[in-house]
């Protein structure tokens, strides 16, 4: 079902500016990591760390793909007015937030293993040097994740205003749910930061002589 067709190129341009495109990031991390496993190329981390790395890579890939789908469907809705695109954008963004939260939790756990790079520097920096691990960011993401997951209970218990939107409200520069908000530019930046480490855990670099 769609609204009356109109030329909303200005709205599309505003949304494209407000919701950065992450198409430049690798989206097939799990496949690359599986190839590395088959080739025996992922020597660090190992054991329990390898399992944590697998989970982390999966969640970062999912967060990225869900973000990109949310963006594509919201742009389609803005351009064409088809409400199915709007609802799919909501669904994808909710999944993005859930995966982003879980990915941050995994990265924290990986950091606790104390893995180091070849030069001796920590593989994962301290929170003060990595924005996505700062308490303020973790709280923002966790609060939105909690609000999404508790939404059904709030509706069933009558704790949600009857005029409230059932689901995340997607705007041009941010997503909101009640008093909570996440700006797309920040979400994109946090996904990029997680992706840097997921890519390092997934890429296979072969040296031939």
Question: Can you describe what's shown?
Answer:
There is one protein chain. The chain is mostly helical and 209 residues long. It has one domain. The chain has 6 helices and 3 strands, in the order αααααβββα. Strands 1-2-3 form a 3-stranded antiparallel β-sheet. A hairpin with a 3-residue loop joins β1 and β2. The chain starts with 8 loop residues before the first helix and ends in a 9-residue tail after the last helix. 30% of the residues are buried. The mean pLDDT is 88.
Blueprint (SSEs and pairs):
Blueprint: H1 9-18, H2 29-39, H3 48-80, H4 83-112, H5 135-156, E1 169-170, E2 174-177, E3 180-183, H6 184-200
Helix pairs in contact: 1-3, 3-4, 3-6, 4-5, 4-6
Defining key terms:
3-stranded antiparallel beta sheet, globular, 6 helices, 5% strand, 3 strands
Instruction: Tally the beta strands.
Output: 3
List low-confidence stretches: none
Shape: globular
Order of helices and strands: HHHHHEEEH
End-to-end separation in angstroms reads 60 Å
| Arithmetic mean of pLDDT | 88
What's the main sheet like?
Answer: 3 strands, antiparallel
Sum this structure up briefly.
The chain is mainly alpha-helical and 209 residues long. It has helices spanning 9-18, 29-39, 48-80, 83-112, 135-156, 184-200; strands at 169-170, 174-177, 180-183.
